[in-house]
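Re: duplicated header lines in exported structure tokens

Our pipeline writes sequence and tokens for each protein into one text file. With two proteins the header for the second block appears twice in some exports. Here is an export where it did not happen, for reference. First protein block:
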Amino acid sequence: MIDRVSKFEDHFLSTHFLLLFASTHCARMPNRRAFTLLEMVVVVGILMVLLTMGISLFNGTGRNARKVDTDKLLGLIEQARIAAITSRCYIVLGIAEPEFDERYRIGLFKVDEWPDTPIIPFKLKGKLLNRWQNLNTGIALIGGDVEEIKNLLDEPKMTLIYGEEKILAAKIHALTFHPHGGIHFPLGSGPIALRLVEGNSQHRRVTSQKRGRTEQTAENRIKIGRITARAYPLD
């Protein structure tokens, strides 16, 4: 943060110097309608400095948002794992895709009974343990394997019914923890992955931001073990 402030101060001082130089130079020039080549070079230089500042701040903001939401997801996964062990119940971490405000929602649900032979897609009844947690605007979750690890977002959704006074329903990607703390659903024997990217979700389609000359997707990746359900970042 200190480095970013110092860089911003350097850019500000450079811009201030250029503006001072331009104003002093122009004040000495006789009144005329046309710009000189020197004046145009000064203006272009100022614009380049401002553009560099804007790109630097934008990149830093997106990177920080991904870091914050990655830490939030890691914390919620660990919270769900511990809740499953202590309550000796199934705990579902549900990811709801954006509907109106383009923000992904994460919720933890307690499920007393799990069907022996679930039919996909299927419905479950659960209790919301705390309020829904929102990811930052401009951060999305996308599908696609991570180092040959299957992605939770590629799994079929389930409908989770919850609420006491008012019955609500949410279609979610469900990561379910069994009472021993491991992953119970999705089915399989391997770990599960998540991918967070900078981008927007509109009409259930994600447009991710790409950076650099190689047009690489700016993302953070999470791996969740199958047996102990410990989650850790891959980036």
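Second protein block, exported in the same file:
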Amino acid sequence: MQADLSTQVVLGRPVSADNYDARGHFCSVYWETAGEASVSHPFSTRPIPILTPPNVSDRNAIQVDTNDPRSQEPLVEVRELGINGDNYYARQDTNPPYNAAIKGAIARLLLREGAATRLALADDRLKAFGLRLFVFDGYRPIATQEGLWQHFWSQFETANPQWSEAEIERETQKIVADPRSFDPEHPNRNPPPHATGGAVDLTLTDATGAPLDLGTPFDDSTSIAATAFFEMELEKGRDREVFDVCLSNRRILYWSMREVGFTNYSNEWWHYDFGNSMHVLSLKMLGEPLATGAAWYGYAGGLRAPRSRGCGPGA
């Protein structure tokens, strides 16, 4: 049975194992109506704020304070802190919708030290509820950003031949930060969030590593991927029972990350920021502006990455 996503969202247990990728991550819009039981966690009853998606120009206007000592924090491999993960973009053929490694992708999962420490704290707190974090992506080289930009640009261009370049650019920017504005001569002016080492893409799993249902696959480009999508469905009077599992899981992930200082990019349930310009803008939108109004994580490409300890080849 294929759900008619234009009129309803029927979310629950995937029909068969064929709907999973090689790691077991759900990647289909085919569902049974019988849902799985929600995870018992206090955050599952706490609504996610419904925010207007951030404006790119507002993010680009935020400065990086290179005098802040945190701006020089090194990149660390998150798996060496006990966090589970696998770089989605470095996979060869088990990473739909790409089905190939993205240009420039690295196997390592790197974050700034301060962000990684906070992530480990969130993961540790989730363990008490039989849950874990699973990381898909952290620091991202500019070459990888360019590869992702081109992928989604081509996807929108092919699917919508009547669109102007401005329309394609607008939709692509909802999914991928535009790498064309990056200036290697001035790397701390408008670096893409992932290029700062302060952005992370992740999901929830149970204690065994089996992924929980968050409503869409990672890097889904539909409106259902918006973090508060199911909150908006509730506001429309939709029956919570048909998407209760996904709603609860998104709330658990959202508040687990917010509790340790991260903010979420509202168009993507999997994307969280700390210390970069998107983080500063998101705090302002939440009514929690920083006193300085400046980010402390700028471009991380010039930082020396740690030596690998068995977590994949170096950057």
